[in-house]
Amino acid sequence: MATPAAVTTSSLSLLFAHPHSHHPSTKQRLDRSHLRLPLRAAPRRTRCAAEGASASTATKHRRPAEENIREEAARLRGPATTFSAWYEPFPPASDGDPNERYSLDEVVYRSSSGGLLDVRHDMEALARFPGSYWRDLFDSRVGRTTWPYGSGVWSKKEFVLPEIDSDHIVSLFEGNSNLFWAERLGREHLGGMNDLWVKQCGISHTGSFKDLGMTALVSQVNRLRRAPLSRPINGVGCASTGDTSAALSAYCAAAGIPAIVFLPADRISLQQLIQPIANGATVLSLDTDFDGCMRLIREVTAELPIYLANSLNSLRLEGQKTAAIEILQQFNWQVPDWVIIPGGNLGNIYAFYKGFEMCRALGLVDRVPRLVCAQAANANPLYRYYKSGYTDFQSLVAGTTFASAIQIGDPVSIDRAVVALKATDGIVEEATEEELMDATALADLTGMFACPHTGVALAALFKLRDQGIIGTNDRTVVVSTAHGLKFTQSKIDYHDKNIKDMLCQYANPPISVKPDFGSVMDVLQKKLNGKI
Question: How many other C-beta atoms are found inside a 10 Å radius of the C-beta of residue 512?
């Protein structure tokens, strides 16, 4: 089958070299029918056809009562896929071995030069199918219980881990998260923005976007531990500021794999702490910050047969990038103008870039959005690096921030983030503690229940609107990385006006009233300005 003219690359390593077109006007964006590839019949099923096609075309009879969905998937499995993926050094070393690559079945976290690794896909094989084929295939899987495609991650299996057997996948049907139209926030508080959206990744199983990456990583570990590979992996470990440990513990519990988590003492919320405890993980509380925990877990996994689950391991980014593809799906494969992402260890902004760019390269869309990375001012090494023109990166000891999950001063994925930002003409912005808490409270007053990290991204949006960088009619997506219920203490302190040196201007404390009709009416008359 002929490859669409827009698909010109045969390796994901070439994606970073493609320039991006200018952003269209609102009028152009609203009518994109001329940009869509014509719909065509799916290609005849061959060994290159996507796995799962036979399941989607099977008769509609209910499976036998004694058969579960995993067994049903095995019975209906179509032809074997010839799509593949592997590890390569990131960025490609100019003076290293140009042929250096590793199988995903190897336990390896660093290149031969000590740098990061990246998962690369056989783009030439994927490009044998037009963008319309992939759009239709992914759309056909949304909201189904067909294993494993009901997951927002595994519905894009061919773009994630194409070679893994469905029987090895560990999924909690993560993803498929809501794209919330922030109508009132945009209209009343952001100068009449009518196309403002919040991607609510925090409504996933463990309450954060980390589920998207952890299903990919734990599935690969499950594959490694089982026959025929039978690797001697005794457990999976991570350092965490809270959300990573929650996701790892849940997925390991589902798979029956021991989980070990290193947490900085007194630096995460109780709601985050109880999650790995409840899921049976071995929890070590260490008197250090996240960066100290990260150093220790790397030393431990180098000595013991424990698989490293932090974003140093690029497998997680393959799952996380599906949130970007999901955004495109939810806009009927139209591309937003801006996507604003909170940044701590900085793997997520690169993951979003990978998802958008992969879709562009394979003809699902025609461009990528501009990316914004939002950091807390108390933990802002990328912001400082950006302000220096990317000439002087300095790690730092992160200060305390309500956005505790991004309280990181020495991010592992700093180089990945810079690639994503440069490739998308991206911006880095910061938010003070008062700015992020006020933005969180204001969002809540318009119907959200945002976490402080979402507050960082929203505060960045307020600043970029004030500067005229983001326009009134720009379609803008703010990525909400966790559920507000994980951070209730920060909300309690804010609405009690119990935060030192903070005005808490949007606080809404409860009103103590005597239990009699007159007192209640007095309060209501005053509160409602005599409109009763």
Answer: 7
Residue with tokens 């990246």: 118
Please state, in angstroms and rounded to a whole number, the distance separating the CA atoms of residues 74 and 284: 39
- Alpha-carbon span 150 to 247, nearest angstrom: 19
> Measured between alpha carbons, how far is 18 from 8 in angstroms, rounded to an integer?
10
Residues of the chain with pLDDT under 50: 1-58
Residue-wise burial string across 343-356, b where 16 or more C-beta atoms lie within 10 A, e elsewhere: bbbbbbbbbbbbbb
The vertex-39 CA angle with 141 and 196, nearest 5°, equals 65
Report the b/e string of 389-413 with b at 16+ CB within 10 A.
eeeebeeeebeebbbbbbbbbbbbb
Strands 179-181 and 196-200: antiparallel
> Which pair of tokens denotes residue 289?
């910050």
pLDDT given for residue 78 in this prediction: 67
Distance of CA 232 to CAs 86, 224, 256, 306, 384, Å? 21, 8, 15, 9, 42
What b-and-e string marks burial along 260-270, b requiring 16 or more CB atoms within 10 Å of the CB?
A: bbbbbeebbbe
497-508 tens-digit pLDDT: 999 999 999 999
Distance in angstroms (rounded) separating the CA atoms of residues 330 and 352? 15
Closest-CA residue to 147 (of 55, 254, 211, 62): 55
Q: Residue 121: its pLDDT value, please? A: 98
Name the 3-class secondary structure at 19: coil
CB atoms within 10 A of CB 251: 31
If DSSP codes are grouped into helix, strand and coil, which group holds residue 508? coil
pLDDT given for residue 59 in this prediction? 52
CATH 3.40.390.30 fits 80-209+313-488, yes or no: no
Give the pLDDT confidence of 270-300 residue by residue, as tens digits.
788 889 999 999 999 888 988 899 899 999 9
Helix-, strand-, coil-residue percentages of the chain, each rounded to 5: 40, 15, 50
Q: How far is CA 462 from CA 185, 193, 327, 423, in A?
A: 11, 11, 22, 24
Enumerate the domain spans of the chain.
Answer: 80-209+313-488
Contact 453, 479 (CB under 8 A): no
Among 204, 283, 205, smallest CA distance to 238 is for: 283
C-alpha dist (Å) from residue 202 to 66, 239, 433:
34, 20, 21
Q: How far is CA 164 from the centre of its chain?
A: 21
CA distance 263 to 243: 10
